[in-house]
Amino acid sequence: MSSDFESYEQDFAVLTAEITGRIGKVPKLVVDDKKQMVANVEKQLEEARELLEQMELEVREIPPQSRGMYSSRMRSYKQEMGKLEADFKRSRIAYSDEVRNELLGDDGNSSENQRAHLLDNTERLERSSRRLEAGYQIAVETEQIGQEMLENLSHDREKIQRARERV
């Protein structure tokens, strides 16, 4: 099973390298070529998502004792995928700004700055939301553990009282 996972890893590495190269080329191309490149990158991103899904399925099939290593790899691949999608989103925004500027005939520098600022703020909000959700999960788990401890203590108290009554 790990051989399947490793072949998926190799495919993912090749695919992400191609995507990165193409994303870097988008701003330098003329409009028609950009449209085609954007479509190709979207298709490759979908392939990469499918590869990640296949890799996750393989990880689920791996025995629990060696699953941790593969799970950490999966987390890093998902992070890499997120970065690729964010880079692609930025290149598409730059691409759409260029098309708009060509149609309207203005330079739109302030618009680009505003969009970049909004993207940064959106990413910060998403990170903060994820942190809050993780904190909430920890609080829920802590509460469950506390309830279990209280139940155990209650049972222990009853046992001690019964033993004391016998004595």
UniProtKB/TrEMBL annotation:
Alphabetic keyword roster: Coiled coil, Golgi apparatus, Membrane, Protein transport, Transmembrane, Transmembrane helix, Transport
Span of domain Vesicle transport v-SNARE N-terminal: 1-91
UniProt key word Transmembrane helix: yes
Subcellular location: Endomembrane system; Golgi apparatus membrane
Record GO cellular component, one term: Golgi membrane
Membrane topology summary: Single-pass type IV membrane protein; Single-pass membrane protein
Assembly and binders: Interacts with distinct SNARE complexes that contain either STX5 or STX6. Interacts with NAPA and, to a lesser extent, with NAPG. Identified in a complex containing STX6, STX12, VAMP4 and VTI1A.
Designated name of the protein: Vesicle transport through interaction with t-SNAREs homolog 1A
Organism per entry: Caloenas nicobarica
